[in-house]
Write a structure and sequence with these properties.
Layout: H1 3-24, E1 31-33, H2 36-52, E2 60-63, E3 73-75, E4 82-90, H3 91-112, H4 116-141, H5 145-186, E5 192-201, E6 209-210, E7 218-221, E8 227-231, E9 237-244, H6 247-258
Helix pairs in contact: 3-5, 4-5
Amino acid sequence: MDFITKAFAAAIVTGCLALPATLYADCVDGSRPTTEAERQTYNNTMAAIKAALPTPPADWQVQAPNPLPAPNSVCKGSRAVAGYDAVYFSSVLQKQNQERQQKVDAEIRTLQQLPADKQKEADDLYKQGSQLGYQSIAAQKNKNPDEAARLRAEANKYYAQSKAIKQEHLQSISPQINKLLADNQAVYVSPEVRAHIVAVEGANPAKGERVSVPGADAAYFDSYNNLNLSFGKGVGQAVSVQLRGSREPVLAIANLFAGSSLKTLAVK
């Protein structure tokens, strides 16, 4: 397992382990034990969800941890909901982001360099300050604190002038740097698509920007820009998939889910 895979594997496992506490810790009317039949159905559903995960596209990986076992208790009036998380990851997109960032960093470093004449002026002022600083140290050693303080104050003036030249230059290039950063952010594509799959009773109504994903009974982007897919329309079991990431790869992964066997878990 490479470093990248280990990194997002740890993130997924951590998220999955936190799920039961989030679901069942705050039961207003208390909790109830789950039955053996419920636990068996839950475990079977989780195994089926993992087995139905679509194969990632070329140059992508999928991190699919082992499902957590069924909970021993749930809130009264509710049932154990099988929810599974996986991450699709593109090393190609990550490399493209890194290469763009490296190019931007190099352009920023070039902009930050002072013009030759300004660099010489700043260096000369700094040298004068350094000379006065050494003289101040000598005066202090010679037990002449007043002269040492005067020389140190003079040295600080030269240091401040040298620093001011650099700060003025940085302020002048600030709009260019901000534009470089904004342009880079505008074309950034997340290399991760996070998938959360849940088997629920009845399909959730679509709320948001509807999109066409052939094979899904409903597909829409919610207010957080997550893509939600629904498989199943009736009162029986439905499967909901939420995909988080940049829009283009999210839609590509969504088409994989819509063509996978995952939708066979939904009762039409």
